[in-house]
Fold these 2 entries.
Entry 1:
Amino acid sequence: MTQSSQYDLRLSSRMARLGTETAFEVLAKAKALEAQGKNIIHVEIGEPDFDTPSNVVEAAVDALHHGWTHYGPSAGLPQLRKTIADYIGRTRSIEVSPDEVVVVPGGKPIIFYTMLSLIDEGDEVIYPNPGFPIYESMINYVGGKAVPIQLREERDFTLDVNELAGLITPHTKLIILNSPQNPTGGVMPRTDIEKVAEIIGDRNIMVLSDEIYSRLLFEGEPFSIASIPGMKERTIILDGFSKTYAMTGWRMGYGVMRTDLATQMTRLMTNSNSCTASFTQMAGIAAITGDQSPVGHMCAEFKHRSEVFVAGLNKIKGFSCRQPKGAFYTFPNITKTGWKSKPLADALLEQAGVAALSGTSFGEFGEGYLRFSVANSLENLQEALVRLDKWTKQNL
Ligand SMILES: Cc1ncc(COP(=O)(O)O)c(C=O)c1O
């Protein structure tokens, strides 16, 4: 509803440049249909359907009872920063000190703070497209120039390093990598990551390496560009708790970066959030240092579900889908349906009761695709397939 007032709302001009994450809008639309009595299968939102491991929940409750209910340092509690530094150091084979860690409410603020702290008007940022929509939104918001690099299906949705080389100009200030990737489930091979570092060479270009799905990799070991000699000081690693430990609603993530940049991001934290909730940070220590078997279980389950779901999608008229290599998304090609992505996603929600996302929610190069999350039970995923099959048979 629009507010009527004698006073015009005089928004800042930059608000017109802000994008969105459509998943939240489709979720709201699906909920509204449910309120009218419709049955909807939710395959739109990107969050694990598992519960947060019980040791983490218990640690938070314990922390609440022990007074971890006050402000803490803006960069995060020293004990959590140390835990994260050890964890990232161990898993990326690099030396990380606690003052290179900034704890923030979710992974998203690291994207925001990276743009705010590094990007001036006209600075170029190369980012994956289709990709997590907040990258493009934030680049535009701060007045940067968004330079998409297309992820192509025939390359299993990994970027073409030669194409990347052609996009770099003297104005390039930041390159965003995301592997395993949202929305395609693509994973950059180690050799490609090494080539990206080679192409950057000794140029003063920063890399935002979004590794939030690094523990949801179906085969092999994750590899970070920060592990390549000479790259650590030019890399901001984004990671967090949302996806790894099914903690999306807790709002806790972090960035690992050189200390001079960490100081600046800490200033942004002081100005915006003051700090991440203290008791959740105590639970974060339990998450990283506790039993890791729930993470392995969740990853195996997502792999299995995506195999079942992709096999089912490939039987549906007009759909063809590659097997994702990580995360919990499938990204079928729907061009043979003859429909554009957005109207198809809308029709599937309204007529078939399946809430999926249009590929264009992830940028212009997402046209021709839909994203289905497999973060739902196998039973519901099977039901989604039945509904898709029925709808396509009736409508195509
Ligand atoms: C690629 C990517 N980066 C960052 C995030 C942000 O995660 P968080 O919920 O921790 O803010 C998401 C969430 O969907 C994501 O898919």
Entry 2:
Amino acid sequence: MLGAMGVSVSVLASGSRGNSAIVCSSRTRILVDAGISCRETFKRMKAAGDDPRTLSAILITHEHSDHVYGLHMLAKKLNITVFMTGATHQAWAKAVRDAVGERPALAKLEVFSSGRSFHLGDIAVTPFTIPHDAADPVGFTFRAEGVKVGMATDLGYLPPNVCDQLRGCDLLVVESNHDLEMLRVGPYPWSVKQRVMSRVGHLSNEALAEFFTSDYDGKASYIVLAHLSEQNNHPEIARGAAQKALGCRQTLLHNRVMLATQSEPMEAIRL
Ligand SMILES: [Zn+2]
Ligand SMILES: [Zn+2]
């Protein structure tokens, strides 16, 4: 079974129509974001031979619907604790309605603060602030069994605090949202283009490439490009930009680049 030994990460879905991933140690299994429906989450887990009932907790990065769409139903069906910041919970609670228009509540909720690490079982979780237009958005690092995993999507740029957090990671899941030129000439209205490109929007292939050539420490064995735009990016353009930037750093040996997609789960990455 997934995560039976060591640390593993599997991205169930990634993109503006829903985000969800699983981070496991041999003892603890965390669902990071719940942006696809409960049914689809279960379906994708089962297809990978994984049992949803073994999840220990749900962690939420921010309240945008592509990160919380299935949250209420998943928390209810699995009867597990949801972890998010207080401001994210308030924003979620204000916006969410169930199928009959009622405001649902979470039976088990734990609030964390950005910058303060905590443990979920044997996994040390560090939430850190990211620049994005949500109430209190965070990225995460996870440490267990001598392995470090970093996740940062939905961010307008990579400020120094985020670059610091991403140092020493064995696996990075990072946003490579759009190709700047495709976004410029693409179909989005100007106001939406401006939002995506802003300092609290989404990270471009170009901005990520800049990180790889300048700030990145080169420690990761795997780099997963995530939250790709279906309108304003192409998987091979994103991959090409990342590989070219990493290729400029001749000392980097590992750094296998992989792509997370919207429509199907990635195979689990074992560390
Ligand atoms: Zn978002
Ligand atoms: Zn998102």
